Amino acid sequence: MKITEDNNRIIINDINDFHPDHIFDNGQCFRWEREIDGSYTGVAFGKAANINYIDDNIIINNASLNDFNEYWKDYLDLERDYGIIKRKLSEKDSHMGKAISFGYGMRILGQDKWETLISFIISQNSNIPRIKKCIKALCANFGDPIGEYKGKVHYAFPELEKLAQIDTSDLDTCRLGYRADYIIKTAKKVALDGGETLNRLDKIPPQDALEYLLSLSGVGPKVANCITLFSMKKYDSFPLDVWIKRVMHQIYGIEEGNVKMMQNYAAEYFGEYGGIAQQYLFYYIREISKYSNTGRINHTC
Questions:
Q1: Which residue in 30, 83, 258, 287 is deepest, having the highest Cβ count within 10 Å?
Q2: Could you give phi then psi for residue 76, rounded to 5 degrees?
Q3: For residue 155, what are the CA distances in angstroms to 9, 24, 140?
Q4: What mean pLDDT do residues 84-113 have?
């Protein structure tokens, strides 16, 4: 991986297994917007940037070499060899192989724990456009401005202490519905130790991390697994939403209501890469459903 700094942009040469659509439009993050040229502009860790992929090179605009080393390298998971992971998962079955071929450029982002926690509480029973709109409003109303970029003022995600000090009614302008109460209760509980417990969850066993997350208001098993997968590098986490339940039923023959069997099957079948397998499957079935009236996977492919 060769890195060049040039006029407030970073160029990372010869990177395989990377595609902005597969990374920023696969349900793992909500603060990135696609531009006409196929790049994505968004905010992470209080930094606004534009990310594109041209001729096997990643281009990060509005970033310094220091920004790359401190934030973007880990955020984009650039030091992991996804080629090895893809080969191992592709051997499982033809459907897994097809899903990987479809979303070949996917990577699991290393997101901020606090932002991921609140974002996935907001995500419950909603769709991605609405989730993005709600999070954008939350940041604009309660996050600190981090400057103007590409003609827009961008905001950092609201600090834990800020949300812990307000009331549910203060969130009315963000149109969060019943989720507003969850957010305030969770913020107040996490703030009891200044977020120390939340921030060390990646250093404790997965089951212990899930137990803490499930104790928070508005966090169920699916949301908890999303948080551990997308912000704690616990790649065996296997979030089960309606899309994945459909996959597990149609491909692997498990009844859609049998969540425990799905989790056990994923742990045994996909092992340490269960969460990564889940993301390939999620992106695949969600995308092909856009062109299918049935939403079913073609088992003859």
A1: 30
A2: -90, 0
A3: 20, 18, 6
A4: 96
Q: Distance (Å, rounded) from C-alpha 134 to C-alpha 131?
A: 5
| CATH for 1-79, options being 1.10.10.10, 3.30.310.260, 3.40.50.1390, 3.30.465.10 | 3.30.310.260
Q: What is the pLDDT of residue 293?
A: 56
**Please, are residues 173 and 141 in contact by the beta-carbon 8 Å criterion?**
yes
Phi, psi of 292 (to 5 degrees): -130, 140
Longest dimension (CA), the chain: 55
CA 187, chain centre distance (Å): 20
Residue 289: per-residue pLDDT: 79
Instruction: Give the distance, in angstroms, between the CA of residue 69 and the centroid of all CA atoms in the same chain.
Output: 20
- List the end-to-end C-alpha distance of the chain, in Å, as a whole number: 36
pLDDT average, residue stretch 57-64: 97
Residue 153 structure tokens: 């003022």
CA distance 191 to 162: 10
CA distance 262 to 269: 10
Q: Give the count of beta carbons closer than 10 Å to the beta carbon of residue 265.
A: 17
Note if 222 is an active site residue. yes
Write out the two tokens for 173. 């302008």
Q: What is the mean pLDDT of the chain?
A: 94
Rounded Cα gap, residues 201 and 196, in angstroms: 9
Residue with tokens 């997968």: 229
The domain made up of 111-232 has a fold known as Endonuclease III; domain 1 (1.10.340)
Q: Is the pTM of this model over 0.90?
A: yes
Spot the catalytic one: 113, 222, 234, 245: 222
